[in-house]
Design a protein that fits this description.
single chain; 214 residues; mainly alpha; Arc Repressor Mutant, subunit A; Tetracycline Repressor, domain 2; 2 domains; 10 helices; 70% helix; 0% strand; elongated
Length: 214
């Protein structure tokens, strides 16, 4: 009797969606790692592709420039941090409203110092902030997706302080928040001095109480 040859087992078709997501994740990781290791000017599409194990055509299919790769990778990093906090039972970040405006501002600004000095966030956020100055389109996305949501939390807290009588009613909260945020950002970006808890506490005290004798 002649035996029939066994039919070859059918292998499942490769999942292109899963493969694309794996490649995308590798590109994110490569971009963030290279910016931290060699700096933004030396980071290239070719370097990202080699580090991620993909062809540079794959990157150009999804992003027009290294700045766009880095921006999306940084947004993803921020989302991962939020998801991790949620898994650990932490509430989504909200600006505290304890009734003590100075204490609440100091609490949030100290948390901002911690993030700005975190190696995972510092290099990519510094690179994006600098690139956003010369790349108007990228800068607009950086502001709308990363900066403005945080700034609106300051606005809401200052408006609450106005309702409580702790801030003059004619004050524009959107301008007032710059008294705290802008000096910290400038010092961090331009390396004009160290940033610390003591520094941001002093910003709050100066801004809330003014410079002239009372």
């Amino acid at each position: 009797m002649v035996q029939k040859s066994a039919q070859p087992s059918q292998k499942p078709a490769p999942n292109s969606t899963r493969r694309s997501e794996r490649s995308r994740r590798a590109i994110y990781d490569a971009a963030l790692a290279l910016v931290s290791e060699v700096g933004y000017p030396k980071t290239t599409i070719e370097g990202i592709a080699a580090r991620a194990g993909v062809g540079k055509q794959t990157i150009y299919r999804w992003w027009p420039s290294k700045a766009d790769v880095l921006l999306e990778a940084f947004l993803d990093l921020s989302e991962q941090a939020s998801e991790l906090a949620a898994k650990e039972g932490q509430e989504p970040f909200e600006f505290p409203d304890t009734g003590d405006l100075a204490a609440d501002l100091k609490f949030v600004l100290r948390a901002t110092v911690d993030e700005l000095l975190n190696p995972r966030f510092e290099a990519p956020s510094r690179a994006l902030a600098a690139e956003g100055v010369v790349n108007e389109q990228l800068g607009a996305v950086f502001v709308s997706k990363l900066l403005e949501p945080s700034l609106q939390l300051y606005v809401q807290r200052l408006r609450s302080a106005q309702d409580q009588g702790a801030v003059r009613p004619e004050i524009d909260p959107r301008i007032a928040l710059e008294l705290f945020v802008s000096p910290l950002a400038q010092r961090w970006l331009q390396h004009t001095g160290p940033i610390s808890y003591e520094y941001v506490d002093t910003l709050v005290d100066y801004a809330l109480h003014g410079l002239t004798p009372r």
